[in-house]
Each structure stands twice: as C-alpha cells, then as structure tokens.
Amino acid sequence: MKRRDFLHKSAAAGLSLSLFPSAVLRTQNPYIEQIGLQLYTVREQMAADPAGTLNAVKSAGYSQVEGGNPLAMQEMLPMVKDAGMYLQSSFFSPAYITERWDLHGDTSSSKQPEALIEAAEKYGLKYLVFGYLNKAERQSLDDYKRYAERLNRMGEKCEQAGVHLCYHNHSFEFGPIDGKVPYDVLIEEFDPANIQFELDIFWASLAGHAPEKLMNKMKGKIRLLHLKDKLGGIADEYDESKVPKDAFQELGDGVVDIRKVLKLAPKVGVEECFVEQDQSPDPLKSIAQSTAYLRDIRDKV
What we know:
By secondary structure, the protein is α/β, with parallel strands linked by helices.
C-alpha cells in the first residue's frame, strides 16, 4: 500500500486524544516517555486487524500514534481507547493543498482545507501534517512556492483553531532544481508562526544531510520528529522510489545517531517524536525492537 493510498484509506486514523495513559517507558526523557508510532509502519496489519494491531502497538511500548486521515476518526475511537493510547497528530491528503485529486484519489466529500481543521478541532488534534508531494506536483521551484503560500494560509487558520500545521519531508525536497534546494525554499517561504516542520531524520540523512546539523540550522522551526534509522553504505538518493527496502532499519541498527538527535531535540523546540519504519519484513517485531533500543539509551539522552 502506497503512502498516498494510506492517507485516504487507513482506518488507523480513527483515534482520539480523549485518553492520555501513563507511558509504558519509564524514563526522564519526555520524548521516550510519550513516544509515538506513525501507523504507516503497520499499515497492512491495521487493514487486517485494527483493534489487535493497536493493542500490539501499545504492548510494544508506545503511548500515542500518528494517523492518516482526520476526517475518518470516529470509527476507530473505541479501539484506541481500549488500547490505552491517544492520538494528537494526523497526516492528511496532499490534494487539499495541491488540488490534484486525480493523483491522490477523490475520496473526500469536502475538498476544502477548512474541513480538516474542523475535524481536528472536533477530535482534539494538536497537529496536522502535510506529508507528500507526487512527482507531477513538484516539477519546479514555483510549485514549491505556490504550495508554501497555500500552506501558510491554511496554517494561519489552523493556529486560530488551536491546531499546528507541519510539513513532513522525504529526500526529494533536497534535490536541487535550477541550482536551488526546494527544502531551503520551504524554510524561506514558510511563516514559522503558521507552519513548522516534522523532520524525518531518515530521509534527511538519505539526502546527505546529518539530521543534527539540519536541526541546528532550523532551530525553532521543527515541531515534530520522525525517528527512523538508515542502513550503512546506502548512497544518497533523492528519488524515494529507488530506495531499497532494507535501507529502513530499526532504531539503533543503522548509522543515524539517534541519541544525538534526542539530546538536541529539546534545544531546537521539538515537541513530539514518532517512530516510523516504512519497510520491514515484520513490522510488529521491528517497532518493539525500536522501543527496546529507546529504553536502553534512556539514561544517555
């Protein structure tokens, strides 16, 4: 299942902020204490058995999850409550900004960003995340500038509703266009009062950027982090479709310095961290291994 399909179809997004359980991971580090999981990691399991998968996620040591569609939450609310977790962040279809419903699927009864904000208010969400641009949507720097303008407008409305809008990166934003890096364009164009970033440290590393250096550069502009590790020896790559599946590693098994990232996070303004592993032969085993690693390093960050 591709990410853009998940943004529309995942029943995993049906979670609520109404229950805040005590965290499984007992530690002084706030990110580990309230560690979340991006449910794209367990997308196949969620499709087959959402309630059972949510319980497994909780048992693996997660306190919260990040969903994929704020308009489809009510159905899953009893299951997430039963699992003892909460949700305060959700991705949404990029078509609300790009207006390319032909690329992302015409599945929404309302195609206005205001519908997302209303849903976020209704379900008590704190964050909405713009997560992906199709290749056809990112052909020029003007494309990025146009979307930045629209996201700024949406972000202003989000802030008025008490919701924070974030942009999640892949590696393609770091591939130069006409001599300029699109990610730098986004940094320049975004009004940090209206939209900030959810930095995915795997994709930044894959594009040749040490996450901690990027975090220092973007101090005060990163609200969320996606924690994921990268296999050593993988060449820099801007095309996400060319990345081998085994490039995605459990935390601690790759070359990304997770401890350094977690130490730096509070200094640059990060509020929440979510584990994500796009590819794994056994996602439930992988997510448990990642939380075990976080437990092991909790006294070192």
